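We examine the record.

___
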Amino acid sequence: MLQPKGMTSDDRRVRFVGLDAYREAGGAVKRDLFGKEEYIEDTGLMMRLFDAKLEAAAEALRAKGWKWVEVYAEAYVSYNVTDPMIRLRKAGGELSEAEAEEYDSLAELAEDDAMDEAQAARFEELTQKQAERYTPEQIAESGGWVYVSHQGALQTSLGYVRKEDAAAAAEAGVIAAPEGGFVEAAPAEKSAYSAKLVEDMKAVRLAAAQTALLSKPGLVLDLLAFALSPEAGAYHSIMDIRTGAPTIVPSQDEGLALDERLTQRATTRCIDHAEAFAAFRAKGQKHRNAALTEAVARTLNYACGGND
C-alpha cells in the first residue's frame, strides 16, 4: 500500500490500530502546537500495523470456515466489486417445539416486565438462536471482505459466492443452478481501453438501448413486469427502480388470511436475466399483466392519498 502523508490521530487507520499500540511498537507522535490533533511521524510503521491487524481479522474469519476472505483497503466495499458475485441470504435459526413453547412463555413475561435475571438470559439465548445467520453450508461455499470504516471500526461484508465457485455452491444446495448449468468462462484478457473510455462506451450503449425502447411500449411493459416480479431474482434489478414493502401483517395476525401473491418475494439471485426474461415473455401477455398487477399492489402505501 502507498504510505499516506499527513496522517493524524483522526485517520480511520489510526483509530483502528490505536495510538497506544503504535507507541508500543516504537512509533512517535507529534502534537499540533495550535490544536488538539496528533500527527503520526512513522506512517510506514502505522500502515504495517494496520495491515497486520486487518489481516489477522481476515484470518480469524477464515478459521471459522469461510471459503475465502480478503482484506479490502478502502472504507467500504464498492458495488463494482460485489456486483459480479452472488449474494447469499442469511437463514434464520429454528427452535425445537419445546424451545418454542418456552420462548412464548418468556415473551409473555417480558411484556409484563416480570422476568428475573436467569429468565432474561434464557430469553436472550433463544432470541439469538432464532436470529438470521449464515449456515455452515453457506459459509463453506462463500466469502467476503474485511475493511475499516471511516469511523475506524472493523467491518465485514460476507456471504458472496464467486462466479468460479457457483457450480460447487449449487451442487451443495446453497444457490439455485440455471437450467442449462454453469458455463466456465475463459480467463479475461486485460482491456486495451482505459476504464474511463469503457464507462463512456457503456453510457452510449445504454442511451441507444433506452432510445430504442421509446418506440416499443409492449416490450417496456414486459421489462417492467419482469423486473418487479420474483422471476427476476433478488439483489440485482435490470431497471433502476426500487420498491418498498409496506407492512401488511399486524402484530396480532390471528384470523388474518392474506393472499399469497401479496407476500411473494424473490429469495435467490437470477443467474441469467436474458434466459429468465425470455421464459417470462413466453408465458404470454396475461401472465405479464398479472405479474405487473401483483407487483404494483404489493407497493401500495397506507393513507397514500389522503387522511386516515
Notes: DSSP finds twelve helices and eight strands in the chain.
